[in-house]
Amino acid sequence: xxxxxxxxxxxxxxxxxxxxxxxxxxxxxxxxxxxxxxxxxxxxxxxxxxxxxxxxxxxxxxxxxxxxxxxxxxxxxxxxxxxxxxxxxxxxxxxxxxxxxxxxxxxxxxxxxxxxxxxxxxxxxxxxxxxxxxxxxxxxxxxxxxxxxxxxxxxxxxxxxxxxxxxxxxxxxxxxxxxxxxxxxxxxxxxxxxxxxxxxxxxxxxxxxxxxxxxxxxxxxxxxxxxxxxxxxxxxxxxxxxxxxxxxxxxxxxxxxxxxxxxxxxxxxxxxxxxxxxxxxxxxxxxxxxxxxxxxxxxxxxxxxxxxxxxx
Length: 312
Known about the structure:
This protein is 35% helix and 27% strand. With 312 residues, the protein is α/β, with parallel strands linked by helices. The protein folds into 2 domains: 5-222, Rossmann fold, CATH 3.40.50.300; 227-293, Alpha-Beta Plaits (2-Layer Sandwich), CATH 3.30.70. The strands form 3 sheets. A 6-stranded mixed beta sheet has the order 6-7-8-3-9-10, with helices on both faces. The protein has a 4-stranded antiparallel beta sheet with strand order 2-1-4-5. A hairpin with a 5-residue loop joins strand 1 (5-13) and strand 2. 29% of the residues are buried. The model has no long low-confidence stretch (mean pLDDT 85). Keywords: ATP-binding, Nucleotide-binding, Transport. Belongs to the ABC transporter superfamily. This is ABC transporter ATP-binding protein.
């Protein structure tokens, strides 16, 4: 299956010598939701800007729908909707006119019914006749999304779309995203709210220092890199761990009342039964146990932290 976006050996070095992207390779499939995670300055916005034709790469190639983003800019840009981080709108224009104008800019014929539907989906319909300067920051961000959807793009880039908006609006936005995906729209988002990526993304990419560290299907990533923790609440506190338990990745809680066993992915499943048998041999009994699996945020922090350590 041909990817809807294909990025090959993409680099970008600015005039001041800063390398924003360093040989990024990425294929994005039609209809998926891909979350790009990375700290500030990692290269997320530069990558999006190049795909959208707003910034020229230093080297490499980007195809959108099989068309080169430089040589066939008009074709590729018509396929893409972009919700930028910055609130760049005419503050003295109405919501309705702003969104309708955006559709016309992309060469699409007027479609009042579509604009009405978009505004209602984003809870903007009661504000359709308000000037943008009269709206809250969250409402202005909704207008950016409405503008991006006005020309019915096949690919939607959301660059930190929920930054500075309240929880209710965030939830409404993701309902719109799910509806778009159901209609076949491919969605690429960057976010600092990692729980959002964990909830809605199909695949997750981690970018740092201009390099794409990994791109994986979300569930597979969490199975492979997610740490699991088994906590055993002891019947009697321990002062120290017996030497016979040194083979296991065990830690004793500060008060000696619990044993904590950490393992990676599936590797520790077999060792748990062995550990429990070893505890019984040592006459160590527990009254309760609980398990915890690391979140996508834990994995992200670990990956970026390891990368920072390599740089040092």
